[in-house]
Specification:
single chain; 727 residues; alpha+beta; eight-stranded mixed β-sheet; seven-stranded antiparallel β-sheet; 23 helices; 45% helix; 12% strand; globular
């Protein structure tokens, strides 16, 4: 596995370093290449001038690649790839080009040898054709596929199916398993994005354009670019593959649809930051090493709160590259897990009753060339004023578009996690910290922007052998907030662990760019910077909340503030395609109204199909597994002539009867589901199917208490979350 980094000997803006981090001096080149790469809607686009396709071709061959693929993020949530031959390994001395071989085997389908010979006149013509294909390096930059077979929300149809991949020059190619991977975008014949990557790149353009404009309004005439960066924290579960392979629900749905907690689960949080089991440690070490080879600098790995739950995180980089790195990391983790007889679960809630998994997205904005962080106050009056402007823009963005941020992190899996006292609630708010909130209140009352800054304060540990006191960060942490300020970045904690980062980052970038545009316009109109900032904070302060996001009191308070509480995916998606959201995305050049409508349709479809898949899978597991086992167990008990068993027999019979009633009710709900529209199906899934699945589960979990261990048809939770710890 190798990641390609180009370098020119005489270019100050072309100085890639290390293993995947973007050095500040490279941002101008990256941005220019990305713009050229994704702005073309033609499949015959030329390569970006800063990239030499022949050099990439030769480099990939040296690393053992014999196929290549345009690697793109589809709207279904997983990357797409089609493997094409990098170089045809033929020359004139190759046996395939002998007259006998040519006449017997080398000809076009449905042609006789004589027809093929007539077409090519000789095997040398075929050789020339293959050599020409080998030397056509433009194939590395553009490709074509059937766009109608991917989820498109109506952007593509069977009779208008063209879909085109175009190389994203901002994201480095890499070689993995003898294949050259070329991160790409995916667009339709008309240029509409069929992927999640194109809107992300467009949103980075918007951040750059509006960020520079706002800095100019603040008097900064030297900054020549603003970039969004991202560092992710990926949570996941690791379980034994043999147990995984015996759970139909895990294989088909990614989560367990039935099963009760073992007596020991996460009561004392003993698993958090604990020693990694040897088998898992060896696996994670292997993952880390291979990700480093691929240019993904993993900086930490640790156990999480739930048993069998873990987290890895890399050093941050530019948002579009970081999103690619996350998708690649997930693929590599799945691949390597098989070698260790393990299975990796990225579902947001694979096990009921213990913590689920998220993908915390640490987002920030920097000046491109200097790397100055725009989300930290600094120690000068200028940097402190600039910070308060940026935070005001973010506050406005989150308040105006909380519904959009909630919608783009909605999914069937994340519905189980949000608001479950392990993740932020389904209410989007912004945590500033108490000190910053106090400063904001002073600004609203007429105070100056300056004054909030990092102070050299430390905590006195009062231990003689500890010679370094803890230096306090700007603010304390708040893990109950969906968007906490973390002294130098914003942590979007509500993103689901299985989701692609490109989508939420696209929308967050877009709304931030829109607020930068608003504030620049206000300042350019002649208003003072202080007054503009004060007005924005006064108007949008309702979205700032520094309390306990897990509490019931916050739900009531949020409603009194007028903040949207969109509990389910169905609730959230209903707001996504609003005129307000269409307007901001179109003005920022990220998505057209047609493009947003398409995404809304795809998200509805994905949610409905996932819930339907789960309901049918649960139905099969009950009818073919749980009920037969329960009946066999009951018959065995009924034959036992032992005094005092009548109470147990009655409880078992009642549990079987209750399960039969609930599963038949699920059948009735399933029969009605197909008669509804997509939007109606989403509401129906939330109000009927999901709730009835829980009713069925309640009965199967009750029966688990009674069924003979030898009769129970599936690995139990105790086997799933603890077995791999043994070795």
């Amino acid at each position: 596995m190798f990641r390609f980094r180009t370098a020119l000997k005489s270019s100050s803006t072309r100085s890639f370093k290390g293993t995947g981090q973007s050095a500040s001096g490279t941002f101008s080149m990256i941005h220019a290449n990305a713009r050229r790469s994704y702005s073309s809607s033609s499949p015959n686009c030329p390569p970006a001038s800063d990239e030499d396709p022949q050099k990439i071709f030769e480099w990939a061959k040296q690393k053992g690649a014999y196929t290549f693929t345009h690697w793109f993020s589809t709207l279904r949530g997983h990357n797409g790839e089609k493997h094409d031959t990098l170089e045809y390994p033929f020359d004139e001395s190759h046996p395939s080009f002998s007259d006998a071989a040519f006449n017997s085997a080398v000809y076009m389908p449905n042609m006789t040898p004589s027809e093929a010979s007539l077409k090519y006149s000789s095997q040398h013509k075929l050789l020339q054709m293959l050599q020409g294909m080998n030397q056509d390096y433009s194939k590395l930059f553009c490709g074509e596929s059937d766009g109608s077979s991917f989820p498109s929300g109506g952007l593509r149809e069977t009779h208008r199916a063209g879909g085109y991949t175009i190389r994203d020059a901002s994201s480095p190619p890499f070689v993995y398993k003898n294949t050259l991977y070329l991160p790409s975008i995916f667009v339709s014949f008309c240029g509409e994005p069929l992927d999640e990557k194109t809107p992300l790149l467009r949103s980075q353009d918007a951040i750059n354009k509006e960020g520079v404009r706002l800095l100019r309004a603040l008097g900064d005439n030297s900054a020549n670019g603003v970039v969004a960066n991202l560092g992710w924290e990926q949570e996941f579960f690791i379980i034994d593959r043999d147990a995984y392979s015996k759970r139909e629900d895990l294989i088909q749905c990614g989560r367990t649809l039935l099963g009760k907690l073992p007596h020991r689960n996460q009561q004392t949080n003993v698993h958090y930051f604990s020693r990694q089991p040897p088998r898992v440690r060896e696996y994670l070490d292997r993952v880390r090493d291979q990700l480093w080879e691929l240019g993904i600098p993993i900086s930490t790995a640790h156990t999480e709160v739930a048993p069998s739950q873990y987290e890895i995180a890399p050093i941050f980089t530019m948002a579009s590259i970081s999103a690619d790195q996350n998708l690649l990391a997930m693929e590599v983790m799945r691949d390597i897990a098989e070698e260790y007889d393990l299975a990796v679960l990225f579902h947001e809630k694979p096990f009921k009753g213990i913590n689920g998994s998220g993908k915390h997205a640490n987002w920030g904005i920097n000046i491109r060339d200097t790397g100055e962080n725009l989300l930290t106050p600094g120690k000068t009056k200028e940097s402190q004023r600039r910070f308060m402007v940026m935070m005001a823009a973010l506050t406005r963005a989150v308040d105006l578009h909380a519904d959009m941020l909630r919608a783009v992190i909605s999914s069937a899996g994340n519905d189980h996690r949000l608001g479950a006292h392990e993740a932020p609630p389904a209410i989007i708010s912004l945590y500033t910290g108490d000190i910053l909130e106090s400063h904001i209140k002073k600004i609203i009352k007429g105070g100056e922007l300056e004054g909030y800054s990092a102070k050299d304060e430390s905590v006195d540990i009062s231990v003689s052998d500890v010679h370094t006191n803890l230096r306090k960060p700007l603010e304390d942490r708040n893990r109950t907030s969906p968007l906490p300020f973390c002294s130098n970045r914003i942590e979007f904690r509500a993103v689901g662990s299985a989701q692609t980062l490109a989508s939420p980052m696209s929308y967050l970038n877009a709304i931030m760019a829109d607020s930068m545009n608003y504030m620049a316009s206000e300042i350019e109109s002649g208003k003072s910077v202080r007054d503009v900032v004060a007005h924005v904070y006064e108007k949008h302060k309702r979205v700032i909340f520094n309390g306990d996001g897990y509490s019931d009191a916050w739900i009531k308070e949020a409603e009194s503030r007028g903040l949207p509480h969109l509990e389910t995916t169905a609730d959230a998606l209903r707001t996504l395609n609003s005129a307000k959201n269409q307007d901001v995305l179109q003005r920022m050049g990220v998505l057209t109204p047609k493009g947003l409508q398409a995404r809304s349709s795809v998200y509805y479809h994905m949610f409905n199909e996932q819930v339907l898949m789960e309901a049918n899978c649960l139905r099969d597991m009950v009818y073919t597994g749980i009920l037969p086992a329960a009946l066999r167990d009951f018959r065995s008990l009924s034959r036992a002539d032992v005094p005092g068993l009548q109470g147990i027999k009655t409880r078992k019979a009642t549990a079987i009867e209750n399960l039969t009633r609930e599963i038949e009710q699920l059948d009735a709900y399933l029969s009605k589901h197909s008669t509804l529209s997509s939007v109606e199906q989403a509401d129906y899934c939330s109000s009927h199917l999901k709730k009835q699945m829980e009713n069925v589960r309640e009965q199967t979990d009750e029966l688990e208490n009674y069924i003979d261990q030898k009769e129970y048809p599936f690995p139990k939770y105790s086997e799933l979350i603890y077995n791999h710890h043994i070795n």
